[in-house]
Amino acid sequence: MAGGGFVSASGESHFEAKITFAVIISCIMAATGGLMFGYDIGISGGVTSMPSFLEKFFPEVYRKIQDHGVDSNYCKYDNQTLQLFTSSLYLAALVATMFASSVTRTLGRKQTMLIAGIFFIVGTVLNAVANSLLLLIVGRILLGCGVGFANQAVPVFISEIAPTRIRGALNIMFQLNITIGILIANIVNYFTAKIEGGYGWRISVALAGIPAIMLTFGSLLVHDTPNSLIERGLEDEGKAVLKKIRGVENVEPEFQEILKASKVAKAVKNPFQNLLKRHNRPPLIIAVMMQVFQQFTGINAIMFYAPVLFSTLGFKSDASLYSAVITGAVNVLSTLVSVYFVDKAGRRMLLLEACVQMFVSQMVIGTVLGLKVQDHSDSLNKGLGVLVVVMVCTFVASFAWSWGPLGWLIPSETFPLEARSAGQSVTVFTNMLFTFIIAQGFLSMMCHLKFGIFFFFSAWVLAMAIFTVLLIPETKNIPIEEMTDKVWRNHWFWKSYMED
């Protein structure tokens, strides 16, 4: 690779780089932000199915569950305040990410991750000691601020620091940690639900402090990205960090690309106004739609409320938590599939294959529940119960190697530097907005639509497949600062948005 850069036989340009220890450690440290986020997703669903937690904070729901004469088996958890407990975090994250954009740009990716960790630690402490619903929700709001800042900074940090040829795999470390966090939370809930005395939920909530501390200390240990340093005028430091993370002395070609992008970025006075310019619309539209589609697959509905869902289907308390652990394990293993294939098979193939698998899974689940689960039934028979769990796992697996990680990867790698912080902010904002909508509405939707909720989500999966075929380009092996020339100018539709 003499001369710094080269062009492969396929016409793809690369910069000289080794896979260094500094890159791997930086990405692992940054990805603990995903562990933090995932643990919270997993813990909230399990905690809200614990009788001791419901009796203390949501006595109306607790009484409804104890009352076997409840109007519908699908409706026993339908309570707006209970849904607000889960969704308040995402509403806070939605607001926080708008501030996180300017922090990421002015203070850098590293400092933004540090702020995220501090928010999360304080929120965890408040939740663990909460004796009132108000304190519980204030803690959730602080956790949401941490999620907003972490999801803003971490994917951008990883995309900027990773060598081009393994950028997809390293970026998926963020999503992998989300799935590991969910699995750990499900296992923790399984054991804390058995603790006598009604304080098991406090242990579940308090353990969220561990990934928060990991992210906080990790952010103190890593270097900021060369792109961020150069964008903020620290060119010498940026070049030194670039040499360290690439493991080579000749970083001039990549340095010049970043320098050129940073000069364009510095000329931008209003990042969000710039984001609306015609040449930024392709990555913006794709980023927004991928977040909408990601939530309307129904994945968060299943992951938030897996214990509640299985309980609703008639599984006993232990069995429902155990089933949630199974889906969590499938989630982790399937994300590893994505780590392996994303830079080999490419982004589009994973997205399209998953659409087929998710559609079939949702249709089968909806059909089984529609035919066999009556409003007041106490259980599915064993065979159909196993079929539902298998279909849920099939659905989770396909999401975990596609729309889950790629929903964060593709937006983080396709925006030009001058629009990257603002673009990531809009990405996180949209994700949190629709996560909030799903979290706030799912239990009510399940009550009113019953089994039809799975047909509702499957219709969205069909729309996702059409959007992918027509409008999502392949971005594997394309240097992050060359997306305009290599991707957008060559796309049948988006090329009309590119200026000379």
UniProtKB/TrEMBL annotation:
UniProt keyword annotation of Transferase present: no
SUPFAM superfamilies found in the cross-reference section: MFS general substrate transporter
TM regions (residue ranges): 19-39, 82-100, 112-130, 136-158, 170-193, 199-222, 284-308, 320-342, 349-371, 383-404, 425-445, 451-472
Major facilitator superfamily (MFS) profile domain ranges (all copies): 26-476
Name of this protein: Major facilitator superfamily (MFS) profile domain-containing protein
Entry keywords, A to Z: Membrane, Sugar transport, Symport, Transmembrane, Transmembrane helix, Transport
Localization (cell): Membrane
Chief place where the protein resides: membrane
Domain of life of the organism encoding this protein: Eukaryota
Bilayer topology term: Multi-pass membrane protein
GO molecular function terms attached to this record: monosaccharide transmembrane transporter activity; symporter activity
Signal peptide: none
GO CC terms of this entry: membrane
Family of the protein in this entry: Belongs to the major facilitator superfamily. Sugar transporter (TC 2.A.1.1) family.
